[in-house]
Structures are given as structure tokens and as C-alpha cells.
Amino acid sequence: MKQIPIIRIIAGILLIITGICAGELPPLNLMPVPAEVTLTGDRYLLDAKFTLTVQGPPSSRLGRYATRFLRRLSGRTGLFFPQDFITPAKVSDSAQFIIKYERLGQIILTEDESYRLTVGKDKIELLAPTDVGAMRGLETLLQLLAADAGSYFFPGCKIKDAPRFPWRGLLIDVSRHFEPVEVIKRNLDGMAAVKLNVLHWHLSDDQGFRVESKVWPKLHALGSDDMFYTQVQIREIIEYAAERGIRIVPEFDVPAHATSWLVGYPELASAPGSYAIERYWGIKDPTMNPVREFTYEFLDKFFQEMAMLFPDEYLHIGGDENNGRHWNANQEIQAFLKAKKLKDNHELQRYFNQQVLKILTKYGKKMIGWDEIFQPGLPQNIVIHSWRGYNFLAEAAQKGYMGILSNGYYIDLIQPAEYHYLVDPIPADSKLTDAQKKLILGGEAASWGEIVTNETIDSRIWPRTAAIAERLWSPACVRDVESMYDRLETISLQLEELELTHIKNYEMMLRRLTGREDVTALRSFVDLVEPVKQYDRHFQGVTYTSYSPYTRIVDAARPESMTARKLRHLVEGYCRTDNRLELDRIQQMLTIWHDNYPPLQSVIASAPVLKEIEPLTLAADELFQYGIETVEYLKTETQPSAKWYEDVAEILRRAKQPAGQVELAVVAPLEQLIQKLRD
Amino acid sequence: MKQIPIIRIIAGILLIITGICAGELPPLNLMPVPAEVTLTGDRYLLDAKFTLTVQGPPSSRLGRYATRFLRRLSGRTGLFFPQDFITPAKVSDSAQFIIKYERLGQIILTEDESYRLTVGKDKIELLAPTDVGAMRGLETLLQLLAADAGSYFFPGCKIKDAPRFPWRGLLIDVSRHFEPVEVIKRNLDGMAAVKLNVLHWHLSDDQGFRVESKVWPKLHALGSDDMFYTQVQIREIIEYAAERGIRIVPEFDVPAHATSWLVGYPELASAPGSYAIERYWGIKDPTMNPVREFTYEFLDKFFQEMAMLFPDEYLHIGGDENNGRHWNANQEIQAFLKAKKLKDNHELQRYFNQQVLKILTKYGKKMIGWDEIFQPGLPQNIVIHSWRGYNFLAEAAQKGYMGILSNGYYIDLIQPAEYHYLVDPIPADSKLTDAQKKLILGGEAASWGEIVTNETIDSRIWPRTAAIAERLWSPACVRDVESMYDRLETISLQLEELELTHIKNYEMMLRRLTGREDVTALRSFVDLVEPVKQYDRHFQGVTYTSYSPYTRIVDAARPESMTARKLRHLVEGYCRTDNRLELDRIQQMLTIWHDNYPPLQSVIASAPVLKEIEPLTLAADELFQYGIETVEYLKTETQPSAKWYEDVAEILRRAKQPAGQVELAVVAPLEQLIQKLRD
């Protein structure tokens, strides 16, 4: 829908690419970039006569997908297409868009997701071995939609595509903050749009047990504050995901991260109860008792129930971050250690895991768990989920074990998209053999839920997760950060049509904070800040609980300031080229921000909740003034006094201090500009 | 949260009002306005030590309501309150805010919803006979929240409040367009915020049957395109509504408006099948057969099932708009008419209704239906729902029948809030006796669903429905339109915290149409337009179906342009006072709009879907130019030529033509300004 690519298409009409790694990226807003793209220079003009047909073994699933495709196309273009619902019964040979597939795909790790898409002048054809592959191709076609002044069209092309990795996931933690059914559904739609295929559902932790259990009903009844999914809802979501070619891998974290289990069943615990649902964050002591028979009887019944509820062949048992305190303090456990000649708690946890593995195997499930579960002697169908990093995965692969990566993909750490984008599950310098590389199945973006609510979760997941999705689908050579950001901007807008709130909740949250509909002045400033990074938010004098307000500026602010990025580009451009035009544009930006100071102060003066950012607005404004002066000095090729440099150093120091747990994202480029002046 | 009221509170510190009708409205953002408000001049300063307690017979329902109250307060203020979940077990006498109630309210028509709220300097007290009344009071307190530069506070006051009418409803039509569970839930939250207490759920019509039926499963299986509520979901929503003191009255429209029933059960029909789900809008021919025994056997089983599913004592049978065509064409039906000596189709429908009434009575339900069901001999516990108007209700009341009003409250007709606001179920000049007036139970805003999707429904319902809610709750004397609009602006923002999308989907839709994140230029124009009124949208050459795109400018545009309202005020002010300052502000507005023309054209040139509004943007811009000239002539007290007046008349004519089914809302005030020049 953006103009730029079209112009580039026209200019690049004779550009032929076969195999993405052979040449430059095609000028198309595709994310993830397909394995092979050939542009033909043709155009398929889209009008209100557009029809499609689905050919293959009857799949109402694909019919519904194609129907949604039509609605989204219609929604963007305002075209009144003649078709209502695409059903297996309504097959036509005269449709302009023909979707053909050979068999119904299974929603399993190894399924074929490849497709071929040909956009001709009068005809579009999508071929795939499975209906799941056809779904992937439909998303590609939607991304291809372009426009000129007169009409909408699809650029003529031949695309041959298949994923690099078979496990491309998103972890959503619904324990720390519960996320209602519709939040999960719209994120499944977002995942499908960027070809992710695994929802890793972190369903239990210290702060909440989120699934209805019929065999152990006190789990959800006492462990969830009444915020849990019924089994009917779980099935509904599994079905919803399957309709989009997405697996659901449930995680029940054991033996630690389990306070919420112990509220209803304190007899599971290693220390005497009673237990209450945890309200604070961090690694907690409560841990299941690994030496009592009851624990395994309990888990046997529990996993039997969950194995029936969740159809995926994998079940995630967590297994991470057991601090061992309650084990150390329990004499029965210590006696067991001695009796069984177990060296330490790690060996005891191995013992525990082996029992759990037996249970899972009994109920037909394969085990996946965090790094900590890895131990010699495990069957080779388990999967190691690494929060520690590639080296750990490589080590496991060398021993013949499969793994997936989440280290580098923790999106709750509020890092820029490019940071995640450049993390590769198999780095270019990997020493693994090809066979070993095959054991690295992919990765998962991880949206941990401590500081995320249903209002903010979409903006924490999107659009950055689309960059991770590209890493996991596209050929490894696709690493052009600038191209990624260009395309991400468009994809982010398209994700809105799936009801994702990552853009629209931004101003909504600012409206609530100010009590005003017009948030121009406040937004102009918040566009320049980012939440503090990593886990810093928990170490700045604010103690968060599960029921704290996650509605402040730090929660509204986007993880990555695109305005700061733009300034950085201008400054870098100027430093490289000494181009005066760039200096003019920098000056223009700084002047706008500086002029915004009085209206911004007036907003802050009327909303006490904004007081916390006041020091930063002041420091920022002083920095903008010095920035404007810097531009003047550079233009006039004069030097300020030594005193000026002293003053600016002090201002930079102050502008680097976070306030209200946000930091000013434009400090670094301005510092660079000042450095340029000094040089 | 707005500054203005606070200033007004300070200024009006000694203002004492007892009984709203005795004086001017209190300077508070309350909607609906309570029956009695006394301002004390005190302030309760809100800080992070704020706690509350609930005293009364254990009600986890009210505990949950109070918990949500705390979260909303915390969300707006960023204050970290110490309480997690309010449960009946946790009662304290030392809380600053004490909620006391006497008994659990029933979710029925006649329940007591009154409350008394006292905000003192150090203490807040909410007293109510029922927990439902306490819920109403909690919403009032949330609306009282105000702020100055330093802190949040509640203005000291004594409020004594109770509703004027016991039936204050919102009709949501989920047949024409299905609305997912979360849409219903967030609208129930919005209803509770403005003290509405009935969701009238229009669950079946020609275009879709939306409830799972276990006794007649082909109803939902073949009549819904797989878009229906399961019985589990229905129960979940009924429970959700009850938790907010809201009744749910289901409507199953019979014998007409019933095509979707006939898809699965053509044997119910008056004309031979087969039937398909209706895709077009309007009054359709398919009608149930009123002379076959099967019809009543079917309805008996069906209503038995629905009577069990829906706990409310009322069940709405529709009964409207039977065009009689299929009855006329059916010989069996005609023979029945003769045999039973029924004069016409109206008498036949009476016969049908009597059979249905017998069924409802058998299953313990009272009947409500549209005007058409009214007939002599019906029991007096039925309710007439009038789409025709007050006169019809008055006639029924004189005969001893109860009624509710929807005429004047059809919010799908895209009228301004003030239009609905001034419609009273019992007009001031009513000739009814007091006893007869009591039979008029209230009214319902009606959100018919033809041109409404889950993306746009909130913006069609809110904020205008809040004005109707005030009409139905507040004393009849509360009719100050300016005050209503002032308060509506604030209430509208507060409704966003309930996840309603009426504000945030506006720019989202513009982003989709343009494919750009920055929609400033387009929004500046769309702020000035409104969708065409009444049912005009269906008579302008566009044929809509249930699957047409409802994503165009006409769908994004708000029902009521607040910018146009502002211009109208300025022009009226100037015409009244000849104040030059107002002329300056008019000129400023016109200049901004005129300057917006080039960027607007550039947006339109890149998005073919916007082409349809191009003629209106052109006419508007010419009008703005003439408007600027008008201001100049007025300022210089000179007169333009006769030719100028001819030209401007032509431009006004063109600016009045809708384009893309929107109309320019600023034409009338500009015409008034030109008239002022002429005079």
C-alpha cells in the first residue's frame, strides 16, 4: 500500500531474482522475505470482479482462511467482491485466483508449509502440497497488495517459498498477567500473518494457574483469582490456532515456579503450607516435593488430563530456576538425597524430571523443557529450549539432541527489533555439521508477562516479533536491517486489521493519563522515549505486583522510538557526508521538540500521574536547546567556549537519567552530533 | 479529570443543590446526572494509602465490582493501591471508603437501584439497599474523580440517587452482523458505566440465527455461517451482565424476519423452500407458517429451551414487519383465514401471537414485542416496545398496558446526541395520569446491525448512548444540551478504559485506508464530515450485503462531527454578538482547513479507496475559500458583488452533495455566516 515500493517496482521492472541470497532483496513489502522471488514486471489489476476458488480435497479450514483473505482485501481496498463464503462445495474453474493444494496438512512439527505463488497479468495461482502451505501463501499475497493513483494491483511475480526452520514460536505468559481469549486469538492471527507456527502457552507459574482441571479442580479454583481458561475455551483456541496452521504447546512449569499449584494442594509442596497466590515478581522458593509418591500420583493424573486436552505431541515442563531453598530445608528430602546417593539438588531435579518424563511418555507426549532439563540419558526425541543461548544448543546438538532458541528473543526486555533480528539460532560461524544443524529446530520469541497487561501486550509483541519471524522463516542471508525496518513499518499497519492494539492503544493510554482527547503535545514527547531496558524496571525504587497499575507513561511508551531512529539516521548521514540538508532537517526536528515544551508542561501540570516524567522533560528541553546551538555552530563552522562543552556534558549526563522509568532515546545521536562539533 | 470542572468547583464552593430540578446543574462530570447533589466544598485527597471495604451480606459479585473500581482508579491515577482483590472475607472498619448494602439485588425489572454517596474530607461512604445500587454508586464515584496540579481528589458532596425509569436498555442486533463475545462484554461494561440495565439482544433475523439450539440444531448449524454463541457463551454473558446489574432480554423475531430459521427448517415456512441465509438488507418475504401445527410444536420446544437458557422474566418475540406476501400466496393459509373467519393478515398474526403467548406463559415467561403485537385481550403483564413513538405507548398505557420507547433512540440512523437526548418517553405535555405514566417503563437505544461491524459498533453506540442513558435515569428536568455535550466529552474518554474502541478505531480505520501511520491530513477532513443520515446510505447507488466492506470513510467517520459543532457555536455566537474575536477564530479554522487541501489531495492520490470523497474535498475547499472571503467582508464591513453571491450559492449547492456517502457537516454554519453577510 505504500508508494515507494511501487515506484521501485517500476524502476526495477527487469530485475530478476532467483534465490534471495543470489542478489539484492526484492522491492516488496514482504515479511518474512520468501526463499525465492522473481519479478516479472506484469501487474494483476484488482477490481470488484475479483473471485477465487479453492481446489483440493475438501478443507473448510482453508475455505474459511480464503474467506478471511477476501474480507481483508476488501477492507483495505473498499472493493465489493461478489463472493460471500468460500466453501468446498463452491469450486469454480473460471476464478481469476486459483488455490490448489494436494492434501490436508497436519498441525505437527514436521508438516510441509511450502508454497508457490504466481501472479500473472490476468491470473493468480497458488500451489501448495498442503492447505497449511496455502495459508502461508495467502499471507504473502495480502502483503503484495500495492496501489498507484488509479487502482490496486498485485505486482507480477513468481515466488517459491518454504521455511528455514520448522519451529517458529511465540511464548505468551498468561500466568503473571492473565490474557483473555480474544487476546490470544488476535495474536494467533498476527502470528499467522508473519508465518509463525507455534504458540508456546506458559499456563502456570507462581502467580497463577490458568487452566481448568477437572481431576484437580483446586488448581484453577484456588490458584487463578478466577482468571483461567475453561477446557471448552482451551479447545476453542486450539481449534482457532489449527485453522491457521499453528501448533499450541502448553507449558506447565515444574517443580519450581509452582506456588499457584500449592494454594489448592499444599501437600505437593516441599515446605509446610498454607500457600497464597504470589503477588510479587522474581524467583520464589515454593517448589514441589520430589520425594513423595503423592507428587507423582498427582502429576500422573494431571498430565494425563492435559495430554488429552492438548493435541500437540510436545508438552513443555519448564524445569527452570529452582533455587533449592525449600529442598535444602526439608529433612525428608535431604534424607532421600543421601539414601539415593544424589550429589545435590541438580541431581534430585534430574530424578524428578525422569519421573515426569515417564509420565509424559506413558501418555504419548514428548518432553520439551528449559536448558536445565538437559541431562545425559534422556531419549533423543526431547527438545531443549534454550534461554541461555546458542552454545548450549550446539552442545546438545553435538550429543544428538534437538533444541530451540529463545535467548536473544526475550521481547519483554524491550530491545530494538534489530537486536532480535540479528540473533540467529545457527550463527554463520557455527561449527556444527549439517546433520547437527538440522537438530536446531528454530526458536521462540518470549513475551514474559510481569509488566504486561491485556492493554499493552500487543505493543510489546508487535511489530518486533515480525522481525524474529523473518529470522526463523527466511534464508539466513536475509539480514539487511534497513530493509527490515522499512518493511516492518508497513507490516505493523497491516497487523492492525487483525484487531491487534499495538498502535491504537498508545494514544488511548495517553488519553487516559491526561483526561483529554487531544494528546499531541504529550505524544510528541513520548515518541522520543523508551521504557528502561532489561529488568531495570524492577530496580528503580518501584515495587511492582500483579495488581499494580501498568498504565503509566512507561507502559504507554513504545519499546523502540522510531523518531529516535530517524534522528540517528540523520546524524549518521551528516557525520558521514557533511551534507547541510541533513543538518537543516535535524534543526527542524529539534525546533519542533523545543517548541513543544510549553504545551507539554501545561499537560503535565494538569495530570499528577505525569509528574514523574517532569525532570526528564526539562533535561530533554535543555538538550534540545544545546542541540540547536550545536547545529548553528556546525553551520557557521565556529566553536563554542570550553564552558559550553562543560555545560553540555552536564546536560547530557542529566538527559541520560531515566525518569518515571523511561529514558530519552535521542540522547545518543545528539551526543554524536556534539562530538562531531568537537572533532 | 478535566480542569474546567475543578475551577468551577472552586468558584462554586458554596453552591448547594438539593434536588437537581431546584437549581442549576452541579459543575461535575456526572452522566447520568443524579437525582440530588449537594456540594460541600470539601475535598477527599486520593493517595496510595486509599483502601475500601464492602459491608453487607457476602457478595463476591460486589467484591469483584469494587476490585475493578480500584483497578480503574489506579489505572487513571497511576497510584499503587495496597489492596489486591476485595472479597467478602476481607472486611475492615478502618478503610477510608466504606460500601454498605443491605441485601443482594435481584437482576429483575423492579429491583431497587438507589444509593447514597457521601464524600467527606477523610471518609467516603456509599450506602445502598442492594448491591446493584452500590454498583451504580461506584460508577458515580469514578466519574467524580478530579485533579489539580498536585493531586487527585474527589470533590466533597452528598448524592442521593435513584433512576427515573426501571427499564433502561440498549438493543444490540447481532444477526445482521455477528458480534463476538468480547464486543458484547465491553458494551455491557459501557452500559454499567452509564447505569443502563437491560441488554436487548436481537439474536435472530433474516441474516443470521445466533444461538446454539440443542433441540433444533440446524438453526445455528445452517443459519449462522458458523457465527453463533454457544449456550456456554450465552450463560457466560448472562453471568457477566448480572455481575454488573444488567438484565439480558433475548429477542427471537417471529413470524417474519425469520429467513435464517428456514434454512435448516424449511417446513416452518409459508412458501416452499429451499432457503438460504439472506445476504441483502430490507424487509423480506419469508415468514413462518401460522396455520401448521408443526410451527407451534417447533416453537414450543424452542421457547422451552430458550426459557431455560435465559433467566430474565421477559422474552422478546419481535413480531414486526410481516409484509404478508407469502401468506397471501399460500392457499392453505388463505383457506385457514376463511375457515377461522379472520379478516386479514393482521388478524392472522394476532392468532399466531396468541399461540406464542401461550407457549411463553407455559414456560414462565412474560412477552415483550414491537408495536405490532399490541391487541385487545392480551394479559397486562406484557410489554409493548414502540418503534412508532410515544403516542402509541400512551394509547397502550391508557388501556393499562406497559411499554418502553425506542422511537427516537435508533442510533443506527446517525443522528446527533442532542436529537436522542431530547426525546422523552413521557414528554412534558403528556396527558397521562400518574398511574398511566408508571406504565411507561423506560426505553432502549437501538443499535441495528446492517451497516455495523465489530470494528465500528462501539463508535455507533458510544458516546451517544450515554446521552440516552441520562434521559432514562435522570430527572426529566435535566435537559441542558450544552451541559450534556460538555460532560459527554469526558465520559467518552472514560469509556475507553473499558476497552471500548469508539475513539481508537477511528484513526485505525484511516490508517488502513491510507496505508500510512500518520493520518493527520485525512483526519483533518474526515473530522468535518458525517455519514449520511437516516437510511440514505441504502439509496445512493451502493448495494450493501452482509459481506460488503464496512471500512470506507463513511464507516470511519463519526456519527457527529464535534468540529462542526464548534464552528456552529462560533458562528451563532458571532451572529448574536458581532464579536470580532469569534470572527478571528472562524477565520483561523477555515484557514487551517484550506491549507490542508494539498496534503489531503496527496493522500487521496495514493489510495484509490479515497477517490470517492474527492469531489467533496474539492467542493469543501472552495467553500472554505469563500468562507474566508466572507470573514474578510464582514471584518471590513464591505459587500461582495452579486456575482459573488451567485457563485457562492452554487458552491453551497455542491458542498451539500454527499460523496462516498458522507456529507460535509460544516455547510450549515458557513451558510449562516454568508446569510449574516447578506443581511
Summed up, what is this model?
The structure is a homodimer of 679-residue chains. Chain A is 42% helix and 15% strand.
Structural account:
- Two copies of one chain form a homodimer.
- Helix content of chain A is about 40%, strand content about 15%.
- The first copy, chain A, has about 675 residues and is α/β, with parallel strands linked by helices.
- Chain A folds into three domains: about 160 residues, Chitobiase, domain 2; about 350 residues, Glycosidases (TIM Barrel); about 170 residues, no CATH class.
- In chain A, strands 8, 9, 10, 11, 12, 13, 14, 15 and 16 form a nine-stranded mixed β-sheet that branches.
- In chain A, helix 21 runs parallel beside helix 26.
- The longest helix of chain A has 23 residues.
- Chain A is globular.
- Chain A starts with a helix and ends with a helix.
- The N terminus of chain A is likely disordered.
- At the A-B interface, helix 2, helix 17 and helix 18 of A face helix 2, helix 17 and helix 18 of B.
Sum up the structure in keywords.
3 domains, disordered N terminus, 7-stranded mixed sheet, alpha/beta, Chitobiase, domain 2, 679 residues, homodimer
